[in-house]
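Priority: medium. Attachment 1 of 2:
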């Protein structure tokens, strides 16, 4: 796939995976718009890659509309939209309703709202590419964080629906599902950090490289950690065995936190 001259948007691109994807796309000659809530970070990345910063909230309805209007004014058209912005919010059953709502807003509805505005235009123009950053938690689960696990499952489910519904009409949909990646989110994972890093946490640049290769063959599931494929298959074919293993891991986490 040649992205030279293509219009590319990356949300949540001020740091981590989003920043690495923006850099990789710019290296290949794409015209990149960098979005992030952190205006300073978005501007810094845009300056670094010769892109265009459009800071703002890519989750709310008004925020998505403002972002896409600004992008179309600058690029003229959007060929690839990386719905990368995400949030790690909440913990267990005691998570407040507001945190549940925010997790769903950013990790699911941001994708829905962007697709609602992008897909009709892409259908008229003959195609487009929508790439969602979810998580291995969206294929498996995230111990210790119910809102994150549920919302990332929702992100994968929406991407799957989008592909099934519009894939035959020129809309390519892909979903990135990494496990441990060396980002601020992993640094703040507490006892989960060791669990997520068990199979070696990747650098964001390694994830971006996997994404670049996935763009070449249009694969739906982009798995920077290959072992996730085996976990996903085991979960599907032996759900009770999978859950038994997860409960063992949860006991280890409980012990680490002094929960009896």
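Attachment 2 of 2:
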């Amino acid at each position: 796939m040649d992205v030279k001259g293509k219009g590319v948007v990356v949300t949540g691109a001020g740091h981590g995976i989003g920043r690495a994807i923006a850099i990789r796309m710019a290296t290949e000659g794409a015209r990149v718009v960098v979005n992030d809530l952190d205006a300073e970070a978005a501007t810094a990345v845009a300056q670094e890659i010769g892109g265009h910063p459009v800071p703002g909230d890519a989750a709310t309805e008004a925020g998505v509309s403002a972002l896409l209007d600004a992008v179309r004014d600058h690029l003229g058209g959007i060929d690839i939209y990386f719905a990368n912005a995400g949030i790690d919010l909440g913990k267990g059953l005691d998570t407040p309703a507001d945190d549940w709502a925010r997790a769903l807003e950013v990790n699911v509805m941001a994708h829905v709202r962007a697709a609602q505005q992008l897909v009709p235009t892409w259908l008229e123009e003959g195609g487009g590419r929508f790439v969602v950053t979810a998580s291995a938690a969206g294929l498996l689960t995230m111990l210790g964080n119910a809102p994150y696990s549920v919302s990332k499952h929702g992100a994968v489910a929406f991407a799957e629906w989008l592909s099934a519904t519009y894939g035959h009409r020129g809309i390519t949909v892909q979903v990135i599902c990494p496990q441990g990646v060396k980002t601020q989110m992993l640094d703040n994972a507490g006892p989960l950090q060791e669990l997520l890093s068990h199979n070696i946490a990747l650098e964001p640049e390694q994830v971006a490289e996997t994404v670049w290769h996935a763009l070449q063959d249009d694969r739906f599931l982009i798995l920077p950690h290959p072992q996730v494929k085996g976990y996903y298959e085991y979960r599907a074919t032996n759900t009770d065995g999978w859950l038994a293993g997860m409960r063992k891991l949860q006991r280890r986490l409980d012990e680490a936190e002094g929960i009896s």
